[in-house]
Write a structure and sequence with these properties.
This protein is an alpha/beta fold. It has two domains: 318 residues, SGNH hydrolase (Rossmann fold); 93 residues, no CATH class. The strands form five sheets. Strands 1, 3, 4, 6, 7, 8, 9, 10, 11, 12 and 13 form an eleven-stranded mixed beta sheet that branches. Strand 19 and strand 20 form a beta hairpin. Helix 5 crosses helix 11. The radius of gyration is 26 Å and the shape is globular. The N terminus is likely disordered.
Length: 492
């Protein structure tokens, strides 16, 4: 009996490696990055020879002691198409493979937002028919350790496949596809309501003492979890019995999507072998609190650098969305400032959305302009188009008697006032630090700000509130100026 059991276990162990296997990302309809070496990887028997063929190329290797293998294809031209074969003891064929540009789209609910509640949803979905655009939606998961695979599949862009995909990612990809005439693929990996620390690797969180408090806070949450879970179970039982009111919210704890590094481990780490062009990101709402808004500038920068390190393909483009206008807790201006500070990193750009939010809905439905503004950055920075891709960004200010002159980058063809009339939401402060509404006028590529109540101004700020409904400074390319203050600080 023992012999039969031993043989059975041995055969099971062998069969688990007997067939050459590929990760979910390497599957039918996938889009491979053009213009760069492309990694193809998977699993097989230890020491098994594996040969990969695609578009006239052949690459062979031998699986390592743990059954892992990888090869690199030489850079492909955009529009290269065909089937990819993987030959070991068995043969796999990945059909309808196409080369173009690949982007990762990540973040929380505004990136996750689908077509159903987007402006002109029905018309947009009906027109979403682009065979040379491909999307891969990563299934949500949390892990304590880095994984090497995800669940999901590539789909060709057509109305029946696009409903669960990100609207922002779609509008971004569509503009790149239409203007650059290349195939575009997007790997969608997002989870509504999640903070940036969940999307950052554990080594990156541990290495920066300025963000280590996220780990300390989580340790406290885990320590208190048994008690919190017991109270939740009791409240849930009472709720089910009474069938009244809102269902109690489950406490944070093991397996929760807010776990530091938990989403990185499960939903980003498995993607890092895949060659990409860059990433787009829409997140920040879950970090816009008194405890986190200021430190987000360190955390977010750490996350970007971490992703670039993990992918190992250089400082790839990373474009993100600044939080839109919305009535909330008062800390969104500081979070927006933290996002702006992150532009210090090379190959980054920010889509300003202070003009297209919804004061009463954290999920603005205008995702078309969001995707467009992200795409402008790619068109300018990646493809070298001579276009303005950002609204005015604060550069410096000079004192002119009782007035301040504000200078900007990204003035484009010149500054303007949306809708005409007077500039709004500018404020001045003197040495006492008291802010007062101020008059502001466009003067060439600058704005002159003054107030009869502030005779010796030392500080200026613009659109410095959660929901600045009249933030109307733009450049003539119709891109909005980013909110700013000239003296950053932790306070609101």
């Amino acid at each position: 009996m023992r012999t039969r059991l031993s043989v059975s276990l041995f055969l099971c162990a062998v069969s688990s490696f007997a067939d050459v296997k590929l990760p979910a990302l390497l599957s039918d309809h996938m889009l491979l990055q053009s213009g760069a070496p492309v990694r193809i990887w998977g699993w097989a028997d230890p020491a098994e020879t594996v040969t990969v063929g695609f578009a006239g190329q052949t690459a062979a290797t031998t699986a390592g002691p743990e059954g892992k293998w990888q090869v690199f294809l030489q850079p492909l031209r955009a529009w290269t198409a065909g089937d990819l074969t993987v030959q070991g003891k068995n043969k796999l064929t990945v059909t309808d493979v196409l080369a173009g540009d690949v982007w990762v789209a990540s973040g929380q609910s505004n990136m996750e937002w689908t077509f159903e509640k987007t402006n002109n949803a029905e018309q947009e979905l009906t027109q979403a028919n682009y065979p040379q655009m491909r999307f891969f939606l990563v299934r949500k998961a949390v892990s304590e350790t880095p994984k090497d695979n995800v669940e999901g599949q590539w789909v060709v862009c057509k109305p029946e496949t696009m409903k669960p995909q990100s609207a922002v990612a779609y509008f971004f990809a569509r503009e790149i596809h239409q203007t650059r005439k290349i195939p575009v693929g997007v790997i969608n990996s997002y989870w509504g309501g999640t903070p940036a620390q969940s999307w950052t690797s554990m080594p990156a969180l541990k290495d920066d003492l300025d963000v280590k408090f996220y780990l300390d806070n989580w340790a406290v949450i885990l320590e208190k979890y048994p008690e919190a879970k017991a109270k939740y179970d009791e409240a849930l039982a009472k709720w089910k019995e009474a069938k009244k009111g809102n269902q109690p919210a489950a406490p944070q704890g093991p397996g929760h999507p807010n776990t530091p590094a938990g989403l990185y481990n499960a939903m980003i780490a498995p993607l890092t072998p895949y060659t990409i062009r860059g990433a787009i990101w829409y997140q920040g709402e879950s970090n816009a609190s008194e405890a986190q808004a200021y430190n987000y500038r360190r955390l977010f920068a750490d996350m970007i650098l971490d992703w670039r390190h993990q992918w190992g393909i250089g400082d790839f483009p990373f474009y993100f969305v600044q939080l839109a206008n919305y009535k909330t807790n008062g800390w969104w201006p500081v979070l927006r400032e933290s996002q702006t500070e992150t532009l210090r990193l090379k190959n980054t750009a920010m889509a300003v959305t202070i003009d297209i939010g919804n004061p009463t809905n954290i999920h603005p439905t205008n995702k078309q302009d969001v995707g467009h503004r992200l795409a402008l950055a790619a068109r300018a920075q990646v493809f070298g188009e001579q276009i303005e891709y950002s609204g005015p960004m604060y550069k410096t200010m000079t004192v002119e008697g009782a007035k301040l002159r504000v200078w900007f980058d990204h003035t484009g063809s010149g500054l303007a006032v949306r809708g005409g009339g007077a500039l709004k939401t500018f404020e001045l402060a003197g040495a006492d630090g008291m802010w007062t509404a101020a008059d502001a006028v466009v003067d060439g590529s600058t704005v002159v700000v003054s107030s009869t109540a502030v005779t010796a101004p030392v500080a200026v700020r613009y659109a410095w509130t959660d929901n600045p409904e009249e933030a109307n400074l733009i450049n003539k390319e119709n891109l909005p100026a980013s909110p700013f203050r000239n003296k950053p600080g932790r306070e609101k």
